[in-house]
């Protein structure tokens, strides 16, 4: 029976728990299980058993069973935005020249802590390692492009959980992996990670527990302005 016609006949949409699980859903649950193992909440046997169940799960509800007794499952995740972030940055908003370059040649280089993220950041690792940590950065622009190139090296990008993220690139005998994110905040920054990994590694993913605090500040300022306009009428 066609599911859409069945839902229309019933007059209700399928519950979230009945939705088919995606690879991103499985990765999210697997991350929770990995952290629970590291914290000693699960034994190695329990972890292996639950991971096997996660890989076999078909729906979101089946996945939730494996983390129902873990604190991470009740931390309150932001609901996905109704309109996902665009796959490419808006034309003309991102300069061709980088605002910041991070280069490691037979060495390592790190950008982390409280720093201002420009519109374009270039990262090059040649027989070296580059870490770009945006988890505490100040986002002055809504769209940020990171060009990451790794040649016999490693580039790691870490972002707050409440931003959106997209990636375009590939690997030549290497690994290019960008975790797609959709923030539930309309004003959230969007981080685009582009590049190549040649006999190396480029990886971008969220840093659990880290949020962009000024998103909340911007939302509060909008509310305050709305209240003031209402009072001035």
Automatic annotation (TrEMBL):
Pfam families: DUF1707 (PF08044), LiaF-like_C (PF09922). Residues 114-178 form the Cell wall-active antibiotics response LiaF-like C-terminal domain. Residues 1-24 are annotated as: Disordered. Transmembrane segments: none annotated. Residues 19-71 form the DUF1707 domain. This is DUF1707 and DUF2154 domain-containing protein. It comes from Streptomyces griseicoloratus.
């Amino acid at each position: 029976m066609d599911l859409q016609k069945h839902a229309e006949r019933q007059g209700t949409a399928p519950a979230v728990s009945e939705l088919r699980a995606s690879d991103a859903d499985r990765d999210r649950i697997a991350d929770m299980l990995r952290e629970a193992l590291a914290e000693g909440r699960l034994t190695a046997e329990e972890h292996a058993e639950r991971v096997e169940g996660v890989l076999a799960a078909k729906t979101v509800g089946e996945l939730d069973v494996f983390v129902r007794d873990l604190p991470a499952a009740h931390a309150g995740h932001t609901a996905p935005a109704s309109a996902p972030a665009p796959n490419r940055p808006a034309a003309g908003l991102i300069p061709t020249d980088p605002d910041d370059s991070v280069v490691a040649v037979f060495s390592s280089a790190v950008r982390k802590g409280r720093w201002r993220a420009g519109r374009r950041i270039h990262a090059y690792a040649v027989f070296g390692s580059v870490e770009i940590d945006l988890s505490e950065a100040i986002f002055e622009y809504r769209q940020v492009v990171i060009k990451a190139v790794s040649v016999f090296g490693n580039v790691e990008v870490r972002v707050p959980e409440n931003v959106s993220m997209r990636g375009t690139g590939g690997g030549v005998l290497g690994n290019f992996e960008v975790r797609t994110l959709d923030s539930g905040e309309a004003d959230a920054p969007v981080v685009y990670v582009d590049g190549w990994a040649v006999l190396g590694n480029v990886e971008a993913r969220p840093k659990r527990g880290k949020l962009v605090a000024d998103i909340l500040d911007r939302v509060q300022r909008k509310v305050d302005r709305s209240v003031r306009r209402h009072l001035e009428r």
